[in-house]
Amino acid sequence: MNSKPEIPVARYRLRLVIAGNSERSRRAIENLQHLCAEHLSGQVDLEVVDIYQRPELAEEYQVIAAPTLVKLLPLPVRRIIGDLSQEDRVLHGLEIVPL
Amino acid sequence: MRLMSKPHSARELTGLLKAPTGIVGFDDVTLGGLPAGRPTLICGAAGCGKTLFGITFLVNGATLCDEPGVFMTFEERPEDLEANFRSLGYDLNGLAAAGKLIVDHVRVERSEIEEAGEYDLEGLFVRLGFAVDRIGAKRVVLDTIESLFAGFTDQAILRAELRRLFGWLKERGLTAVITGERGEGQLTRHGLEEYVSDCVILLDNRVEDQIATRRLRVVKYRGSSHGTNEFPFLIDEDGISVLPITAPRRNLAVCNEIVSSGIPGLDAMIRNGGFYRGSTILVSGVSGTGKTTMASHFVNAACLRGERCTFFSFEESAEEICRNARSVGLDLHAHVAAGLLRFEWARPSLYGLEMHLARMQRDIETFKPAVVVIDAISAFRGPAGDVQSILLRTVDLLKSSGITAMFTSLRSGASRDEGTDHGLSSIMDSWIKLVDVEENGERNRILYLIKSRGTSHSNQLREFRMTDRGIELIDAYIGPEGVLTGTARITQEARDRAAADQRERESNRRQRQFARRREAVRRQIEELEAALQAEEDEEAMLLGEDELRDATLKSDQAARAIRRRAAE
Question: What CATH topology corresponds to B24-109+118-242?
Fold first, then answer.
C-alpha cells in the first residue's frame, strides 16, 4: 500500500518564524505540531526561527507578519501568517486537501 | 534627539527641531525641513515624485547631515532603485557600502500569503529596528506602506499595527517619511493621514494644455509655520527642487552702479553710460531686428568684466547663438569655456509656464549669475494673464537677486502697438525698441531708447548696423526730408558732402580774392612809402645844402672880418 493519496510524495520543508516567546508564538508552534502529526505524518523538515533572537533573518526570509509559516518545499513557496488556529486555511496554504 | 544641523534653525521660532531635506526650496517653504523625530506623510498620485522625495531625503541626510537612513521599499526592488537613481548621481550602493543607507525591499505578494489566525506585523518592526540599529539610522522612509493593504485582508489588524508602527517611529525619535498613494476624497487611498498627524505634504502633477506641472503643498505642519501655497517643483537631472517663488522677497537693494550694454553707441545714448545694475531691460522688435545679437553683446560685455551670465534661450540653441555672435565678432564660446557663461536652452512647449520659471529660478540659484538674458519672453504661450504673472514673478525673482536682466520680445510684424509686450514694458526699467524701416527697396534697422528709468537719455533714434566688429550705432540722418537710413542716408550724406565741397571751393576762391586784394593794397602802400622816402631824401638834401650855405656864409664873413682888421 502506498502513502495516503492526499499527501504528496515529496517531503515538506517548512519554516516557522515567530517573534519571541509570546502566547501567540506558542500557539502557532502547538498548532503546527498538531497539524504535522495529523496530516503530514512526520514527513516534515521543520525549522523554527525566532526573529527576536535572529533579527537579521527577518529581512532575509522576507518576513512581515509574525508568526509566519513559510512552505519552502514543495514549490511554490507559500506563506501562511497567523497563529495557525484556522486549520483549514493552513492546509489550503500548504496545498493539502483536508481529510 | 539629534541636533538640528544649520542653516534654518535660527529662523524657526517655535523651537521645533527640523531635519533638513536638502531639497532646494523645500527647506525654505517649511522653514527648515521635516519635523525631526516625527513621521511625515507624503502623498500624491502615481509618478508624482514620492519615491524620489524619499530617496533624496535619505541621500541628503546621509551626505549632508551625517544622518544615516533606512529606505524600506514595498514596491521597487533595490536593484531598480539603484539603477533609477544613478542617473541623478545618487550612489545608493556606495552609501550602503559606507554604512549610511540600507535599502530593504519588503515584498508583499498577495497570492503567496494565506491568513490563518491571529498575527501582527512584528516581522516588519524587527526588520526596521534591526536596520536602524545596524547603521544608527536617524531617518526612515517607508515607500509606500499602503502596499500592505493589498497584501493583508485583516484591515483591523493592519490599522492597529500601523498606528503602533508610527508610534514606534516617534518613540525611537526617527524622522520618517511615509509615502501614500492619492485616494478619492481623501489624501491617501487608505487614510494614512489618520495616523500621521504631524506633517502632511501633497505632491501633484497636473496636466493642463498637454503640459504637466508638478506642484507641492504643505497641507499640514503641526507646530510650525510654513508656506501654504502650492509651490511648483521640478524633477530633472539634478533631482528634485521646490521653488518658493511666491514667497515674498522684496528686499530689493537699489544699486547705482552702471553696467555697459556692450554697445558703445547705445551706452552713449544714456547719460550715465549704461544701465543700472540690477535693472531690467526689455528689447523688443520684429523678427530679424537683432534682438538676440543685442543680448549677445550684453552678455559678452558682462563676461569681459568677469561676471557670470546665464542665457536662457527659448528659441535658438546655444550653438546657434554662439555661431551667430561670432559673425559680429563676439567670441561667446570662450566665455562658456571659461565658465562665465551658461546657456540654458528649452523649448517653450517642453514644460508649463510654472516649470519654466521654476527651472530658471533653480538655475539662477545654483549658478548665481550677475547678468541674465531671457530670449525670448514672447516664446511663452498661454493665457495672457498666466504669462504676465509668470513674467512678473520672473522680474521679481531677478530683481530680488540683484541680477541685471535683458529680456527680448518678438513683436509680430503686423502690430506696431506698443502695449502688447505682455504688459511687461511697464515693469521694465529700460526699453529698447528695434524697428526695421523699409524704404528704397531695402530694410534698415533703427533703434529707439523708449525709456531708461532714472537716467536721462537720448530721445533720438539711431540707425544700427551689424558689422563684423559688432553692432554699430549711427546717428540717423534727420534733415528737412525726414529720417533717412541706409542707402538713402548714404546718398543724402554724399549729397551733403558735395554741397560742402562746393561751399569749400567757393570759400577758397573768396579767400584767394581777398589775398590778392590785400597784396595790391600792400603794393600801393609800398609805393607810397617809397615816394615818401624820396620826399624825405629830397628834403634832407635841401636842408643840408641850406646848412652848408649858412656855414659858408658865416665863414666868409669871418674871413672878411679878419681881412678888414688886418687892413686897419
Answer: Rossmann fold (3.40.50)
Nearest CB partner across the interface for B104, out of A59, A66, A85: A59
pLDDT average, residue stretch A28-45: 80
Which of B104, B116, B123 has the CB atom closest to A82's CB atom? B116
Q: How far is B32 from chain A (nearest CA, A)?
A: 34
- Enter the CATH code of domain B258-475: 3.40.50.300
pLDDT tens for residues B214-244?
888 888 888 777 777 777 777 777 777 777 6
Task: Classify residue A70: in a domain, yes or no.
Answer: yes
Using an 8 Å CB-CB cutoff, list chain B residues near A20: 122
First vs last Cα of chain B: how many Å apart? 166
pLDDT band of residue B245 (cuts 50, 70, 90) is low
Give the span between the Cα atoms of B142 and B419, in whole angstroms: 54
Element (H, E) at B115: strand B113-115
ipTM of the complex: 0.83
Q: In this complex, do A82 and B129 lie within 8 Å of one another by their Cβ atoms?
A: no
* Residues of A with Cβ-Cβ distance to B108 under 8 angstroms: 64
Q: Is residue A4 part of a domain?
A: no
Nearest-neighbour CA in chain A from B378: distance (Å): 56
Which residue from A19, A59, A86 is facing B116, i.e. has the nearest CB? A86
- Comparing B23 with B253, the larger pLDDT belongs to B23
> How many distinct structural domains can be found in chain A?
1
Q: Coil, helix or strand for B361?
A: helix
Looking at residue A79, which CATH number applies to its domain?
3.40.30.10
Tens digit of pLDDT for each residue in A49-93? 888 888 888 888 888 888 888 888 777 888 888 888 887 788 777
- What per-residue confidence (pLDDT) applies to A42? 65
d(CA B148, CA B72): 12
Residues in chain B with CB shorter than 8 Å from the CB of A31 are 117
Give just the sign of the alpha carbon dihedral B273, B278, B284, B289.
Answer: positive
